[in-house]
From TrEMBL:
One of its GO terms (cellular component) is membrane. The chain crosses the membrane at residues 76-94, 101-122, 128-156, 194-216, 281-302, 322-343, 350-367, 379-404, 416-438, 450-469. It comes from Urochloa decumbens. Belongs to the major facilitator superfamily. Organophosphate:Pi antiporter (OPA) (TC 2.A.1.4) family. This is Major facilitator superfamily (MFS) profile domain-containing protein. It is a multi-pass membrane protein. InterPro entries: MFS, MFS_dom, MFS_trans_sf, Sugar_P_transporter. It is found in: Membrane. One of its GO terms (biological process) is phosphate ion homeostasis. Keywords: Membrane, Sugar transport, Transmembrane, Transmembrane helix, Transport. It comes from the Eukaryota. Its main location: membrane. It holds the Pfam family MFS_1.
Amino acid sequence: MEAAAPPHGGPRAAGGAAPARGLGRHEYAVLALTFASYASFHASRKPPSIVKGVLSADWAPFTGARGTHRLGELDVAFLSAYALAMFAAGHLADRADLRRLLGAAMLASAAACAALGAAYFLDVHALAFFAAAQVASGVVQSAGWPCVVAVVGNWFGHASKRGTIMGAWNSHTSVGNIAGSVLAAAVLEFGWGWSFLVPAFVIAALGVVVLMFLVAHPSEAGLEVQGMEVEMNGDGGEEVELLGEDKKEAQGNDDDELELEMGSQLPRAIGFLEAWRLPGVAPFAFCLFFSKLVAYTFLYWLPFYIRNNAIAGQFLSHKASGILSIVFDIGGVLGGISAGLLSDTIGARAVTSVLFLFLSIPALIVYRTYGSISMHHNVALMFLSGYFVNGPYSLITTAVATDLGTQDAIKGNSRALATVSAIIDGTGSVGAALGPLLTGYISTRGWNSVFFMLIVSISLAIMFLIRLAKDEIVTKLSTRSQE
């Protein structure tokens, strides 16, 4: 069979196959674009937490005794809309053009974020306006996650080190939080509206880049999905098989032929209820409900907590509190990578998740108890908390979702990825909506009560994975005894 022409006119490898580095270029581009796009989603979510202190101090309707309640209600407006829309978004992403859907979601998210910033310049004080903008933002942002997971799954679904790759890739969440915190805090002194407008511009610009350059599936670049596995297994010297004559040349085809070819290759999209019944989906989804409740409580309330709790007897400014909060996300970056690496090494996703969840309990207790002693104590303990809290959250939303969306029960159907990831992340997002809302009310009774809520949530998250973790241990011991 004659090999197809290499993408973008690159040289052929010996024997007629394209060199492995040709495919590698596409992989790097996909990782970079999806990383930047989802980081920008999180950057545009961060401003509400940065401006909370300013709004509660002098911007109606968030002032007064019920101010924190309304700030919590504003968080839940976004997160509940996000969670409910996520299920439909995953269903849509399995059937739509991922590049166009992701790019459109980014541009729409930029508009919603800019609308919140405009409230400052237009002197808007109506709670209904803020809530409506947050609901709109939640709906359009829900398309982001299933799109990027499906794209990365299309390219890396057969990777032998999937946990490590996706653990590192999933640091976009923490990187986005860090970037959003820094951007929003840096311009806060010019007026809190700018804290929304700057991230809105960033996500809009990246949305245009995605629409222009993202390659959502290997077949769109004239590459077979199976060829990807050779590259990812680390055998860089092996040839990567491209689409042959029976599947058309990668270059010189007109658009109609390429679309027809792609349509014949892609399997049937999985149904919503069918995805829920897949082994492991429900336990991990409900585990993420409580794990994400904890993570998003920190996402939305950590700067406010730092601002209102003295460190070494000193209260930090709004700007300093926002910047200091990025330490939690820096810990989350390393936690996500470590969880992915560990789960690949021992071959046990549930065991890894349970371990990180278990260790996050003492980490939170120590941070609450000793974080106020000095700045060094606060930074070190906040980093440790972020490391253990974000580890399982990162692992479940990436490598676990990809595992479950390509398992043998559906014969590796990659078009189940968006639906499965949407179910898992959508269920988690319901918890993410609940955590900040409860914090807005519980914090008025004291922060010890908030941390107690977080510890109970982590304990429940562990309970949902105990059986899966036990099964993984039994399987490993059985395999070892046979060997």
